Amino acid sequence: MQYMLDTNICIYLLDAHPPQVVQRFKSAVVGQVVMSVVTYAELCHGVERCVGADRDVAAKSLARLVLRVPVVAFESSAAKNYGILRAAVRDRRRDTMDQLIAAHALCLGLTLVTNNEADFKDYPGLKMENWVGTP
Predict the structure, then answer these.
(1) What residue ranges of the chain have pLDDT lower than 50?
(2) Model's pTM, two decimal places?
């Protein structure tokens, strides 16, 4: 494993847009890219907010994505990292889900792929890449 995808990058992959994200994902070696169970939870929430046929389409798209991007469990070591990270940042306005995803990536030594770099700034030791800016 090398990369953990943030929720926004997974949504881009589900929408197959922007093309540079899809291309960068396709160039990654199988097994290099994962998503946190926290991201998966956010994506499941998005599916549940859909209605009718849209929900079925969204659920099938998510199921296909999970076949290519494995979901990694949130272990107790990641929970400990979350506590350390949250105490270090001390910004109560930060999104809890983002903090959990950052802690998970840090715990596993993975680079977080996100288009929301500002949401993750100042997290000590967190490595990030933005595939949207990739040519």
Answers:
(1) none
(2) 0.93
